[in-house]
Design goal:
Helix content is about 20%, strand content about 15%. It is of the alpha/beta class and about 475 residues long. The strands form four sheets. Strands 1, 4, 5, 12, 13 and 14 form a six-stranded mixed β-sheet that branches.
């Protein structure tokens, strides 16, 4: 018996004169690509399915991308009838390749990028099919109009795993629009020091009272929480199911979304103000005090599957990078339902000092694309004078993980960043983990409030023009 959703998909393509037996393998590949998320296939009157079908009928003269620079095969319109019979949609292959001893991989387009396919001939085939058939529904006419009125060539590009096997799960990239350059960066699973940042990791720095060497198995399974729960008030931040406890998440969200005066600390010699004016810096404007999670580490006696080792185990969600249609560039979406408090990913990038970041920003022309950096300032106010090598930032423009694709959304984003202490007890360096603030449905875009002050024109990190679409957007005055 044919699934109802499959039947409806066939009905839409039959109206265009497309045989079911030709649609079936295309539909099968799309379901594999989208992890069986029908919503992505059914959107816009089966636009993705129809696009993929006609792309599968085009010329097989495909050029590999060199350094992600696009090379297209240009075909004369008169050749479309002959060429449309030559190509079938290729089976999606597993492009992931694990490299022992090397967690960072440069994306290799020759290995990872699927063919860039020209839809020009498919539009002509659509005309021919439709002229010889009758009874096309309004929805089919709408799809035809959308395709025919697109004069430019559209590209459908796929990377089956941008991590090249370095993560626990494959993370695909899909470009259904075809008007954006593919991202150029080195994928890294862990943060890496750029040059002068001071990150001291050693067993001796972790005191015996700050770890649980006497534990075994799962620390969350014992009736009395171990020493690693002291940071979160004697209770672990995680539930046995692996999500954040409701009370802890609510407190973190309240501090970030509705901070009070006592939630801020002030540096005596603020690194941010010094970067603006080294000789006569202004007073510190304050840094938000953050609630930390302390996870068990190598000196603890528990197992790697301990419930208090969530972030360090890495990504477990099914994620996909995609090109947004709202002008925000690349974005990240989930391919599965995510309960509230779920760990999605860590923000990974180069570890820079505040001065290194400032110098890097000054060298930019303002025209090139870059990711918005993160300042690790959750504990800057605890010391009177902070050395430059201790004032750290994360920057993922050239090296980073999938978090670099997460777009900003003012106030009501569905992710929140929370500092996590793992291998070092001081707060100069920590991991920045992203958790869901509510239940997130499959195929929904993941967003995160970067904490940008759009009115601070003197900030060394220049704000961008916000396209978040939130009714709480803080950039609303600039738009007016």
């Amino acid at each position: 018996m044919v699934n109802e959703r499959v039947r409806k998909a066939f009905t839409a393509t039959r109206a265009l004169g497309i045989p079911d037996q030709e649609v079936k393998p295309v539909l099968k590949n799309l379901l594999k690509l989208y992890d069986k998320k029908w919503e992505l296939i059914e959107a816009e009157d089966y636009r993705a399915l129809i696009d993929a079908y006609f792309e599968s009928k085009e010329d097989k003269l495909i050029f590999p991308l060199q350094g992600f620079e696009e090379k297209e095969n240009v075909v004369e319109p008169g050749q479309s009838s002959r060429l449309s019979k030559q190509l079938r949609l290729q089976e999606l292959e597993d492009q992931a390749s694990s490299t022992k001893g090397n967690a960072s991989q440069i994306l290799s387009p020759e290995e990872s990028v699927k063919p860039m396919i020209n839809l020009q001939q498919g539009v002509k085939v659509l005309h021919e099919k439709d002229s010889s058939s009758s009874g096309c529904s309004n929805s089919c006419n709408k799809v035809e109009q959308q395709l025919v009125t697109s004069e430019r060539k559209r590209l459908f590009r796929i990377i089956s795993d941008i991590t090249k096997g370095t993560e626990n799960v494959k993370i695909s990239l899909v470009d259904e629009i075809g008007n954006q350059d593919l991202p150029k960066f080195i994928y890294m699973r862990h943060n890496v020091i750029y040059q002068k940042a001071y990150v001291h990791v050693s067993m001796a720095r972790v005191a015996d009272e700050d770890c649980c060497s006497g534990c075994s198995g799962d620390c969350l399974s014992v009736p009395i929480p171990c020493a690693c729960a002291h940071e979160t008030g004697g209770e672990f931040a995680y539930t046995p199911e692996g999500q954040l406890r409701e009370e802890f998440l609510r407190a973190c969200m309240s501090m970030k979304m509705e901070p009070q005066e006592h939630h801020f600390v002030y540096c005596q010699d603020c690194p941010l103000e010094k970067s603006k004016n080294e000789f006569k810096p202004e007073k510190c404007k304050g840094h938000l005090v953050r609630k930390f999670i302390k996870e068990c580490w190598i000196k603890c006696g528990c197992e790697m599957q301990c419930g208090n080792r969530v972030v360090q185990r890495g990504i477990a969600c099914k994620l996909q990078v995609f090109l947004t249609r709202e002008g925000k560039g690349w974005g990240l979406r989930t391919l599965q339902d995510l309960p509230k408090g779920t760990f999605v990913c860590e923000y990974v990038g180069e570890i820079l000092t505040n001065t290194e970041l400032y110098n890097r920003n000054m060298k930019r022309s303002g025209r090139e694309r870059h990711t918005y950096p993160v300042t690790l300032d959750a504990d800057w106010g605890s010391e009177k004078v902070l050395r430059d090598e201790d004032a750290l930032c994360l920057e993922a423009t050239f090296c980073g993980n999938v978090a670099r694709f997460i777009n900003h959304r003012c106030f009501d984003a569905n992710l929140i960043d929370i500092p996590v202490e793992v291998e070092t007890p001081d707060r100069h360096y920590y991991h920045l983990a992203l958790f869901t603030t509510r239940d997130v449905r499959a195929s929904e875009e993941l967003t995160w409030d970067y904490g940008i002050d759009f009115d601070d024109h003197e900030h060394p990190i220049k704000a961008f023009h916000c396209c978040c679409g939130s009714k709480y957007c803080r950039d609303i005055n600039r738009k007016g």
